[in-house]
Specification:
Helix content: 55-70%
Oligomer: single chain
Number of strands: 3
Shape: extended
Distance between the termini: 35 Å
Radius of gyration: 21 Å
Amino acid sequence: MSQRNTGVTSQVVNAHACPVREVLDRVAGKWSVQILVAAAHGPIRFTELERSIEGISRRMLTLTLRNLERDGLVIRTVHPMVPPKVEYELTPQARELHETLQRLTDWAERNRVYIAEARATYDTEHQPELVDA
């Protein structure tokens, strides 16, 4: 006989998950990941980021950098010169995050064939369901 865990409600789960979800939503975003990867090797200028991240608009790059700076993951440094030189650099916390992203990337590379084969097997086994849906 199974016993229900009546101490766990959706409110309890959401209260614990909300801060984590908020952080993951920010750092796992398409543009955030690409900025973190591009800035991983040291200070980088806005235009260098813009050129290295295919498809990002200037506005989206500005907003994402601002959010990453607000979250304490990017340091924005303005050098007093004419014209002003602005560089972005990862904080120690962002460097740790980059290492984690690198491990995830390595895992994905090691397992991509396995996942492709698993998908093909699943699709073959469930083809009647997919056709009827």
